[in-house]
Amino acid sequence: MTIRNMVLSAAILAATASPAVGAETITKNATVAPDATVEVSNVQGSVEVTAWDRNEVQLVAELESSKDELEFEATERMVRIEVDRPSGKYHNDEDDAFLTLHVPKGVRLIVDTVSADVTVTGVRGEQSLQSVSGEVGTQAFDAPVNATAVSGEITIVGNGGKAVVTTENVSGSSTVSGIRGSYTGEVVSGEIRANVAQADRIEANSVSGEIAIQAELSPTAQVEMETVSGTIALTIKPPVNANFDIETFSGDIENCFGQKPRDTSKYTPGSELNFTQGSGGARVEIQTLSGEISICDR
Hints:
This protein has one helix at residues 3-16, and strands at 24-31, 37-42, 45-52, 56-63, 69-74, 78-84, 97-104, 108-113, 117-121, 127-131, 136-140, 145-149, 154-158, 164-169, 173-187, 191-206, 210-227, 231-236, 242-248, 253-255, 262-263, 271-277, 282-288, 292-296. The protein is mainly beta. The chain has two domains: 22-108, no CATH class; 135-298, no CATH class. It has a 24-stranded mixed sheet that branches. The chain starts with a helix and ends with a strand. The relative contact order is 0.10. The model is unreliable at 1-21 (pLDDT under 50).
């Protein structure tokens, strides 16, 4: 058989091949309250949630493995969706479960996955989103948003509300933009990049990761940042009116406002920087063991 005929034969076989054994599409619907709680659990694949103007939850589940079972329980106040995988074990890459949901805008959303990506659009109720190695992406309005990922990436985009936003990573990264009011971020060896307008409270902690935050501080804002051996960069939108208390054991402090850090002891390498910029008011406290600290207004 010539190479050309082999290619043609392979193409014909691919075009006429039947779907993978066990592949199944399931559709479920339930009428719910506008502020119902929706819980979703999936091991492998994806979870995609989109808000709409109906008081209804609609689910389209594509299950590639015949071993997976879909659980769908619904009342007016609660919907629980779970892809039940025996022993919770992974199968091969072709055994994903893809969950596509439409939900009322005001639902309280709880999503828990292992290696499945989570994407949420338009949900204005409280959100708690968690994945181990999947990516998590959502929007923040006025209700609290809590996103957690071990090695996956987190992306949160604000829409002008004052949601309390919290992110947690181990080796992944968090990117937060367009939020107002309050942000809390924790990371071990990954990174945090956040932009917070009219910030009332910012709290960020890392072990060896990078923290870079741009913020516009309210007159009574409280900022607390801490790292062991990572880096902290805080850029504050001018005019800056704040009291600064910065301390490091062996790291460097860079301050574009002009004040110089002083040694805490002639016997140890520690240094500190305490000053008031402008009329004060907001409070900024930063600590590090051996990491670097940078504060600036540009």
